[in-house]
Backbone:
């Protein structure tokens, strides 16, 4: 559903009032449970990846929708006051894994997933002074893309659209920036097949390719919610053996990134965005509904 700039302003003003946040989140939750166009995709993914069924799937789905509803309300409030992110992040374990390289003028390859409130995590980094530049895929709807870009710009988050060529991302890294990559979606025809939740599926190459080209550190960002307006972040270094030719190194890196992301998701399964069609190979084989 398209949201105009004026309506966004009204909603963000309401979300800025603490007494209204709970009712707003409950309203978003109920609306999503009633109208979610990809609810069946999310539930099928949960069953396929985690090996659960019936009531377990329904319970996990409801908890994930509740988390998403609170994320929406939090982002509406951040649209009006970005520095709230500094108050809502309770801790940032391992931040030295960013501070060290950045203080030396070196870039960092930051790998993360659609886990926790990932937009709030980006706001926290930008508002804390980290030179974050995430690679993003703009929505197909032009109005929605404009609002999302405006939202991120308000928070101080500079983005690199996926349509831009790799040279801009490399330039950002070599300029001492933190290149953010959401690496949990399907890699499409240009991805590399790797195991994820026990299934072979196309995975984005980006983190491993940039590591191969630059030798810069790769850091995993794990973001999770402990309650409304209460979040924690963890920054953990990732590494893999560098022997072998280019393709062997990249394949090893892709698998290591999948392993790390899967671990983070398993720790907070109700906070991953299960609505992506992540296991498209299984869909083509009839193991998942399309």
Residues:
């Amino acid at each position: 559903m398209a949201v105009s700039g004026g309506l966004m302003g009204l909603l963000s003003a309401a979300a800025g009032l603490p007494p209204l946040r709970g009712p707003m989140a409950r309203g978003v939750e109920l609306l999503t449970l009633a109208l979610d166009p990809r609810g069946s995709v999310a539930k099928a993914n949960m069953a396929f990846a985690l090996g659960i069924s019936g009531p377990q799937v329904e319970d996990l789905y409801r908890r994930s929708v509740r988390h998403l509803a609170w994320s929406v309300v939090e982002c509406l409030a951040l649209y009006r006051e970005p520095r709230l992110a500094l108050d809502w992040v309770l801790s940032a374990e391992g931040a030295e894994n960013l501070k060290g390289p950045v203080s030396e003028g070196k870039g960092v390859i930051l790998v993360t997933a659609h886990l926790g409130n990932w937009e709030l995590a980006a706001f926290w980094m930008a508002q804390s002074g980290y030179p974050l530049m995430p690679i993003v895929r703009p929505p197909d709807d032009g109005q929605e893309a404009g609002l999302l870009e405006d939202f991120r710009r308000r928070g101080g988050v500079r983005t690199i659209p996926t349509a831009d060529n790799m040279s801009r991302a490399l330039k950002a890294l070599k300029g001492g920036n933190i290149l953010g990559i959401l690496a949990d979606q399907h890699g499409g025809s240009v991805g590399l097949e790797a195991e994820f939740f026990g299934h072979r599926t196309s995975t984005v190459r980006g983190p491993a390719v940039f590591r191969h080209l630059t030798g810069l550190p790769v850091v995993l960002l794990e973001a999770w919610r402990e309650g409304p307006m209460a979040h924690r972040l963890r920054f953990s270094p990732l590494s893999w053996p560098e022997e072998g030719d280019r393709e062997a190194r990249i394949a090893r890196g892709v698998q290591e990134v999948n392993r790390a992301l899967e671990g983070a998701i398993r720790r907070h399964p109700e906070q991953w965005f299960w609505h992506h069609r992540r296991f498209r190979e299984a869909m083509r084989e009839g193991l998942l509904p399309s």
